[in-house]
Amino acid sequence: MTKTRLVGIFIACLILSFGLFGCSNNPSDNEASGNNPEPTVEDVFAAYADGNETAAEETLASLGIGEDDYSLYRTIGLARNITPDNKRDDAIKGFEHSLRLACSSQADKQVLIEHFEELANAAKIASDEEPLHFESIYKNLADLAEEHDLNDVLQNAIPNGDEMIAEIEETRGAESDARVEASTANVVWSDNIEEKLLEQEIYCSAPEKRILDANYKSLYPDYVYIDSVQNNSGKAIRDIVICVAAWDENGMPVRIHSPYSYSEENLYLVEIPDANVQPGEAWVNTTQGGWNIAETCTYKIAQLKACVARCTFIDGTEWINPVADEWSRICGNNPL
Q1: What is the mean pLDDT of the chain?
Q2: Is residue 119's pLDDT more than 80?
Q3: Where do the H-state alpha helices sit in the chain?
Q4: Nearest 5°: CA angle at 207, between 204 and 213?
Q5: What is the pTM of this model?
Q6: Phi and psi at residue 296, in whole multiples of 5°?
Q7: DSSP assignment of 172-206, as one string?
Q8: Residue 22: which pLDDT band, with cuts at 50, 70 and 90?
Protein backbone atom coordinates (compact mmCIF):
# COMPACT_ATOMS: atom_id res chain seq x y z
CA MET A 1 0.00 0.00 0.00
CA THR A 2 1.50 3.32 -1.00
CA LYS A 3 2.20 6.11 1.44
CA THR A 4 -0.23 8.44 -0.35
CA ARG A 5 -3.06 5.92 -0.02
CA LEU A 6 -2.36 5.46 3.70
CA VAL A 7 -2.59 9.22 4.26
CA GLY A 8 -5.92 9.31 2.40
CA ILE A 9 -7.36 6.51 4.53
CA PHE A 10 -6.23 8.28 7.70
CA ILE A 11 -7.92 11.57 6.66
CA ALA A 12 -11.14 9.71 5.80
CA CYS A 13 -11.16 8.11 9.26
CA LEU A 14 -10.75 11.51 10.88
CA ILE A 15 -13.69 12.93 8.91
CA LEU A 16 -15.87 9.93 9.78
CA SER A 17 -14.97 10.21 13.48
CA PHE A 18 -15.86 13.93 13.52
CA GLY A 19 -19.20 13.18 11.90
CA LEU A 20 -20.00 10.48 14.44
CA PHE A 21 -18.91 12.18 17.63
CA GLY A 22 -18.61 15.91 17.03
CA CYS A 23 -21.77 16.93 15.18
CA SER A 24 -24.68 15.12 16.74
CA ASN A 25 -28.08 16.09 15.35
CA ASN A 26 -29.85 14.84 18.47
CA PRO A 27 -31.69 17.80 20.09
CA SER A 28 -30.96 16.42 23.53
CA ASP A 29 -27.25 16.48 22.76
CA ASN A 30 -27.53 20.13 21.73
CA GLU A 31 -29.40 20.94 24.94
CA ALA A 32 -26.78 19.16 27.01
CA SER A 33 -24.03 21.11 25.32
CA GLY A 34 -25.80 24.44 25.98
CA ASN A 35 -26.85 25.20 22.40
CA ASN A 36 -30.45 26.32 23.25
CA PRO A 37 -31.32 29.67 21.71
CA GLU A 38 -31.21 32.50 24.21
CA PRO A 39 -34.59 34.09 25.06
CA THR A 40 -35.30 37.49 23.52
CA VAL A 41 -37.83 40.27 23.96
CA GLU A 42 -39.67 38.83 20.96
CA ASP A 43 -40.40 35.78 23.11
CA VAL A 44 -41.78 38.15 25.73
CA PHE A 45 -44.08 39.90 23.25
CA ALA A 46 -45.32 36.54 21.94
CA ALA A 47 -46.05 35.27 25.44
CA TYR A 48 -48.03 38.39 26.35
CA ALA A 49 -49.93 38.21 23.06
CA ASP A 50 -50.86 34.60 23.88
CA GLY A 51 -52.00 35.61 27.35
CA ASN A 52 -49.16 33.75 29.08
CA GLU A 53 -48.04 36.42 31.55
CA THR A 54 -46.11 33.98 33.72
CA ALA A 55 -43.86 32.90 30.83
CA ALA A 56 -43.44 36.52 29.73
CA GLU A 57 -42.38 37.70 33.18
CA GLU A 58 -40.02 34.76 33.68
CA THR A 59 -38.34 35.64 30.40
CA LEU A 60 -38.14 39.32 31.35
CA ALA A 61 -36.52 38.34 34.65
CA SER A 62 -34.00 36.14 32.83
CA LEU A 63 -33.15 39.12 30.60
CA GLY A 64 -32.49 41.27 33.66
CA ILE A 65 -35.50 43.53 33.10
CA GLY A 66 -37.10 44.85 36.29
CA GLU A 67 -40.75 44.60 37.29
CA ASP A 68 -41.26 48.35 36.85
CA ASP A 69 -40.81 47.84 33.09
CA TYR A 70 -43.17 44.89 32.69
CA SER A 71 -46.13 47.07 31.65
CA LEU A 72 -44.10 48.45 28.72
CA TYR A 73 -43.50 45.01 27.23
CA ARG A 74 -47.02 43.84 28.08
CA THR A 75 -48.43 46.78 26.14
CA ILE A 76 -46.57 45.83 22.98
CA GLY A 77 -47.55 42.17 23.30
CA LEU A 78 -51.22 43.09 23.78
CA ALA A 79 -51.02 45.49 20.82
CA ARG A 80 -49.92 42.58 18.63
CA ASN A 81 -52.94 40.64 19.86
CA ILE A 82 -55.27 43.25 18.29
CA THR A 83 -55.71 42.40 14.63
CA PRO A 84 -58.49 42.80 12.04
CA ASP A 85 -59.48 39.23 12.97
CA ASN A 86 -59.33 39.88 16.72
CA LYS A 87 -61.15 43.06 17.73
CA ARG A 88 -62.79 41.74 20.88
CA ASP A 89 -63.69 44.29 23.52
CA ASP A 90 -61.68 42.48 26.20
CA ALA A 91 -58.54 42.55 24.02
CA ILE A 92 -58.91 46.29 23.36
CA LYS A 93 -59.72 47.01 27.01
CA GLY A 94 -56.62 45.07 28.14
CA PHE A 95 -54.44 47.01 25.70
CA GLU A 96 -55.91 50.34 26.85
CA HIS A 97 -55.34 49.51 30.51
CA SER A 98 -51.76 48.36 29.96
CA LEU A 99 -50.92 51.40 27.80
CA ARG A 100 -52.33 53.74 30.45
CA LEU A 101 -50.17 52.11 33.14
CA ALA A 102 -47.09 52.15 30.92
CA CYS A 103 -47.46 55.82 29.99
CA SER A 104 -48.04 56.89 33.60
CA SER A 105 -45.07 54.91 34.94
CA GLN A 106 -41.67 56.43 35.69
CA ALA A 107 -39.91 53.78 33.57
CA ASP A 108 -37.83 54.63 30.52
CA LYS A 109 -40.27 54.37 27.62
CA GLN A 110 -37.69 53.67 24.92
CA VAL A 111 -39.20 50.27 24.09
CA LEU A 112 -42.57 51.96 23.46
CA ILE A 113 -40.89 54.46 21.16
CA GLU A 114 -39.18 51.69 19.19
CA HIS A 115 -42.52 49.94 18.67
CA PHE A 116 -44.68 53.05 18.39
CA GLU A 117 -45.94 52.22 14.90
CA GLU A 118 -47.31 48.88 16.16
CA LEU A 119 -49.10 50.70 18.99
CA ALA A 120 -50.58 53.23 16.57
CA ASN A 121 -51.83 50.47 14.24
CA ALA A 122 -53.50 48.70 17.16
CA ALA A 123 -55.14 52.00 18.09
CA LYS A 124 -56.48 52.31 14.56
CA ILE A 125 -58.17 48.91 14.83
CA ALA A 126 -59.56 49.86 18.26
CA SER A 127 -61.01 53.07 16.83
CA ASP A 128 -63.39 51.05 14.65
CA GLU A 129 -64.78 49.10 17.60
CA GLU A 130 -64.81 50.88 20.95
CA PRO A 131 -64.92 54.70 21.16
CA LEU A 132 -64.44 54.81 24.93
CA HIS A 133 -61.25 52.76 25.01
CA PHE A 134 -60.01 54.38 21.80
CA GLU A 135 -60.20 57.83 23.40
CA SER A 136 -57.87 56.82 26.23
CA ILE A 137 -55.55 54.92 23.86
CA TYR A 138 -55.31 57.80 21.39
CA LYS A 139 -54.70 60.47 24.03
CA ASN A 140 -51.89 58.46 25.64
CA LEU A 141 -50.28 57.83 22.25
CA ALA A 142 -50.68 61.50 21.29
CA ASP A 143 -48.85 62.57 24.45
CA LEU A 144 -46.10 60.05 23.71
CA ALA A 145 -45.88 61.21 20.09
CA GLU A 146 -45.65 64.86 21.09
CA GLU A 147 -42.88 64.17 23.56
CA HIS A 148 -40.79 62.04 21.18
CA ASP A 149 -41.49 63.65 17.80
CA LEU A 150 -43.67 60.81 16.49
CA ASN A 151 -46.69 62.82 15.37
CA ASP A 152 -46.17 61.80 11.74
CA VAL A 153 -46.32 58.10 12.66
CA LEU A 154 -49.56 58.59 14.57
CA GLN A 155 -51.00 60.74 11.80
CA ASN A 156 -50.20 58.10 9.20
CA ALA A 157 -51.94 55.40 11.22
CA ILE A 158 -54.97 57.48 12.25
CA PRO A 159 -55.26 60.53 9.95
CA ASN A 160 -58.50 61.77 11.52
CA GLY A 161 -57.67 60.94 15.13
CA ASP A 162 -58.15 64.45 16.53
CA GLU A 163 -61.51 64.81 14.78
CA MET A 164 -62.65 61.45 16.15
CA ILE A 165 -61.75 62.47 19.70
CA ALA A 166 -63.58 65.79 19.31
CA GLU A 167 -66.67 63.95 18.09
CA ILE A 168 -66.53 61.47 20.99
CA GLU A 169 -66.22 64.29 23.52
CA GLU A 170 -69.03 66.26 21.92
CA THR A 171 -71.35 63.24 21.92
CA ARG A 172 -70.49 62.39 25.51
CA GLY A 173 -71.05 65.99 26.61
CA ALA A 174 -74.46 66.09 24.96
CA GLU A 175 -75.45 62.79 26.55
CA SER A 176 -74.28 63.95 29.96
CA ASP A 177 -76.18 67.23 29.66
CA ALA A 178 -79.30 65.33 28.66
CA ARG A 179 -78.98 63.01 31.65
CA VAL A 180 -78.52 65.92 34.05
CA GLU A 181 -81.47 67.77 32.53
CA ALA A 182 -83.66 64.68 32.74
CA SER A 183 -82.62 63.97 36.33
CA THR A 184 -83.38 67.51 37.53
CA ALA A 185 -86.36 68.55 35.41
CA ASN A 186 -89.62 69.13 37.26
CA VAL A 187 -88.29 67.48 40.41
CA VAL A 188 -88.97 68.75 43.91
CA TRP A 189 -85.77 67.55 45.51
CA SER A 190 -87.01 67.83 49.05
CA ASP A 191 -89.44 64.98 48.31
CA ASN A 192 -87.86 61.52 48.34
CA ILE A 193 -84.43 62.99 47.74
CA GLU A 194 -82.55 59.74 48.41
CA GLU A 195 -84.54 57.93 45.72
CA LYS A 196 -83.86 60.75 43.28
CA LEU A 197 -80.13 60.59 43.95
CA LEU A 198 -80.13 56.99 42.77
CA GLU A 199 -81.42 58.19 39.39
CA GLN A 200 -78.29 60.29 38.84
CA GLU A 201 -75.39 59.16 36.69
CA ILE A 202 -73.04 58.96 39.69
CA TYR A 203 -74.27 57.92 43.13
CA CYS A 204 -73.10 56.18 46.29
CA SER A 205 -74.52 53.50 48.54
CA ALA A 206 -76.06 54.42 51.90
CA PRO A 207 -73.40 55.18 54.53
CA GLU A 208 -73.05 53.42 57.87
CA LYS A 209 -71.41 54.32 61.16
CA ARG A 210 -69.16 51.43 62.12
CA ILE A 211 -67.81 50.94 65.64
CA LEU A 212 -64.37 49.49 66.33
CA ASP A 213 -64.44 49.72 70.12
CA ALA A 214 -67.24 50.68 72.49
CA ASN A 215 -64.96 52.41 75.01
CA TYR A 216 -61.63 53.57 73.53
CA LYS A 217 -62.84 55.91 70.79
CA SER A 218 -59.67 58.01 70.71
CA LEU A 219 -57.57 54.93 69.97
CA TYR A 220 -60.11 53.08 67.85
CA PRO A 221 -62.38 55.73 66.36
CA ASP A 222 -65.76 54.98 64.85
CA TYR A 223 -65.85 55.59 61.11
CA VAL A 224 -68.10 56.33 58.15
CA TYR A 225 -68.34 53.30 55.87
CA ILE A 226 -69.56 53.55 52.26
CA ASP A 227 -69.75 50.30 50.34
CA SER A 228 -69.70 51.52 46.72
CA VAL A 229 -69.99 54.35 44.20
CA GLN A 230 -71.67 53.66 40.85
CA ASN A 231 -70.43 55.37 37.68
CA ASN A 232 -72.95 55.63 34.83
CA SER A 233 -71.50 58.87 33.46
CA GLY A 234 -69.90 57.48 30.29
CA LYS A 235 -66.44 58.67 31.45
CA ALA A 236 -63.75 57.11 33.63
CA ILE A 237 -63.59 58.63 37.12
CA ARG A 238 -60.31 59.31 38.92
CA ASP A 239 -61.27 61.01 42.22
CA ILE A 240 -64.54 61.18 44.17
CA VAL A 241 -65.75 63.55 46.90
CA ILE A 242 -68.79 62.55 48.99
CA CYS A 243 -70.77 64.71 51.40
CA VAL A 244 -72.02 63.00 54.59
CA ALA A 245 -74.68 64.34 56.97
CA ALA A 246 -75.60 63.04 60.44
CA TRP A 247 -78.56 63.03 62.85
CA ASP A 248 -79.02 61.98 66.46
CA GLU A 249 -81.50 59.39 67.74
CA ASN A 250 -84.23 62.04 67.81
CA GLY A 251 -83.69 62.88 64.16
CA MET A 252 -82.02 66.22 64.86
CA PRO A 253 -79.00 67.25 62.74
CA VAL A 254 -75.62 67.03 64.48
CA ARG A 255 -72.10 68.02 63.53
CA ILE A 256 -69.83 65.38 62.04
CA HIS A 257 -66.11 65.72 61.29
CA SER A 258 -62.81 63.86 61.48
CA PRO A 259 -60.64 63.68 64.63
CA TYR A 260 -58.14 65.99 62.93
CA SER A 261 -60.43 68.90 62.10
CA TYR A 262 -63.44 70.73 63.40
CA SER A 263 -66.36 71.87 61.31
CA GLU A 264 -69.15 74.26 62.20
CA GLU A 265 -71.21 72.61 59.46
CA ASN A 266 -73.31 69.49 59.89
CA LEU A 267 -71.55 67.99 56.86
CA TYR A 268 -68.43 65.86 56.42
CA LEU A 269 -66.62 65.83 53.05
CA VAL A 270 -64.83 62.52 52.50
CA GLU A 271 -62.55 61.80 49.56
CA ILE A 272 -61.74 58.72 47.49
CA PRO A 273 -58.54 59.58 45.61
CA ASP A 274 -57.48 57.40 42.68
CA ALA A 275 -60.80 55.57 42.64
CA ASN A 276 -60.27 54.85 38.91
CA VAL A 277 -63.82 53.76 38.07
CA GLN A 278 -64.57 52.84 34.46
CA PRO A 279 -67.95 53.79 32.91
CA GLY A 280 -70.71 51.38 33.85
CA GLU A 281 -68.67 50.02 36.75
CA ALA A 282 -68.52 50.76 40.48
CA TRP A 283 -65.86 51.65 43.02
CA VAL A 284 -66.13 49.00 45.72
CA ASN A 285 -64.78 49.37 49.25
CA THR A 286 -62.72 46.19 49.23
CA THR A 287 -60.75 47.18 52.35
CA GLN A 288 -63.90 47.61 54.47
CA GLY A 289 -62.30 50.81 55.77
CA GLY A 290 -63.69 54.31 55.99
CA TRP A 291 -63.31 57.84 57.33
CA ASN A 292 -62.74 58.35 61.06
CA ILE A 293 -65.27 60.28 63.14
CA ALA A 294 -64.16 62.54 65.98
CA GLU A 295 -64.84 61.18 69.46
CA THR A 296 -66.53 64.44 70.44
CA CYS A 297 -69.39 63.94 68.00
CA THR A 298 -69.65 60.20 67.35
CA TYR A 299 -71.67 59.52 70.52
CA LYS A 300 -74.46 61.75 69.21
CA ILE A 301 -74.67 60.16 65.77
CA ALA A 302 -77.44 57.65 65.17
CA GLN A 303 -78.05 57.98 61.43
CA LEU A 304 -76.08 59.01 58.33
CA LYS A 305 -76.92 60.01 54.77
CA ALA A 306 -74.54 60.69 51.86
CA CYS A 307 -74.45 62.33 48.45
CA VAL A 308 -71.69 62.34 45.80
CA ALA A 309 -70.70 66.01 45.69
CA ARG A 310 -68.30 65.96 42.75
CA CYS A 311 -65.94 63.77 40.71
CA THR A 312 -62.80 64.38 38.69
CA PHE A 313 -62.59 62.37 35.49
CA ILE A 314 -59.44 60.79 34.08
CA ASP A 315 -59.29 63.51 31.39
CA GLY A 316 -59.17 66.23 34.07
CA THR A 317 -62.73 67.51 33.72
CA GLU A 318 -65.13 67.61 36.67
CA TRP A 319 -68.71 66.53 37.34
CA ILE A 320 -70.39 68.74 39.92
CA ASN A 321 -73.55 67.20 41.28
CA PRO A 322 -76.27 69.66 40.18
CA VAL A 323 -78.30 68.95 43.31
CA ALA A 324 -75.49 68.77 45.86
CA ASP A 325 -76.19 72.26 47.16
CA GLU A 326 -79.90 71.50 47.53
CA TRP A 327 -79.13 68.19 49.24
CA SER A 328 -76.70 69.92 51.62
CA ARG A 329 -79.25 72.60 52.46
CA ILE A 330 -81.92 70.01 53.25
CA CYS A 331 -79.80 67.40 55.01
CA GLY A 332 -77.34 69.70 56.73
CA ASN A 333 -79.83 71.87 58.53
CA ASN A 334 -83.12 70.04 58.92
CA PRO A 335 -84.42 67.28 61.18
CA LEU A 336 -85.43 63.98 59.65
Answers
A1: 81
A2: yes
A3: 3-21, 27-32, 41-49, 53-62, 70-80, 89-104, 110-114, 116-127, 131-148, 151-157, 161-184, 193-197, 295-298, 324-333
A4: 145
A5: 0.48
A6: -65, -20
A7: HHHHHHHHHHHHHTT--TTSSHHHHHTTSSEEEPP
A8: very low
